[in-house]
Amino acid sequence: MSHLRIWMTLGCAWVLVGCGDSADRERDREPPPVKDTAFGDMVGTMDKARGVQDTVDAQKQELDKQLSQQEGQTEP
User: Fold this and answer.
1) Rounded to two decimals, what is the model's pTM?
2) C-beta of residue 18 within 8 angstroms of C-beta of residue 26
3) Does residue 66 register a pLDDT over 90?
4) To 5 degrees, how large is the angle CA 59–CA 53–CA 51?
């Protein structure tokens, strides 16, 4: 009975040591850059959308400025 208990203890210890080592290596590994993942295209799309929004905002400000000028000129 004592030999069985020793073997069981050693088996559990080997399993725990094996699991702990791979978890440490996985945690220390640096994640890949976002552009190299499945989300890379989404990041580029968001950057393009921000650029378009900036352009639209600038055009709106210009139109608002022109409208203000025209309204000021037509009033007596």
Assistant:
1) 0.42
2) no
3) yes
4) 110
